[in-house]
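Hi there,

I know you've been waiting on this one. I reran it after we fixed the sequence typo, so this is the corrected version. Both the input and the resulting structure follow.
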Amino acid sequence: MRSCLKGGAATEGFDTVVYERGYRVRPGQAEALYGVVEPYFERSYDHFSGHLYTAPDKLSEWAAVVRNGSVMSVSVPLLESFGRHANEPYGRLLGEIVDALLPDPLVRTGGPKHLEATVVRTETATVVHLLSFLPAREGDGLDLVHDAFPLVDTPVAIRTEGRPSRVSLQPLGEELEWTWEDGYVNVTVTVLDGHAMVVVED
């Protein structure tokens, strides 16, 4: 049986096909964040829609994602499905789950989807490394990176214990304009060579 997810912003009010088999889960005392929509009919040799999935019927009693405090349970093979099909709603759903479990991350970034951000803490500063490079499929399952992708006015928010004394863009040595609000230093970054370090000094 194939089922559909129905829930929050990840699916934007539309059902999303789940291609792999999952488990039947009732929410019980947990909060159901996403529900399971049954197919209008089961596909068989004499009952066939001509597509990879069947039209949805109605929201069932089963849950696809449930939350109980700080624990999330997912009844469908979300990571496997995203790895195989790269379905955009799967990625958004994974992001929503991470955001719900980690509401105050060390860093938040905008910019392109491929942007990588890592945080290093020293005795006197917090350093955020930004890498913006596009891989190209050049062999059987082999992605190589050749070209940098510019970052233009990319927002970066960095969680700090207190108001910083200085924020700079390295290795260029440029002072950055910044604001500090709700425990986060907020800056925008523009670099053309695909790499930047935002250094927030205590």
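Quick highlight: The chain has two helices and 16 strands.

Best,
R. S.
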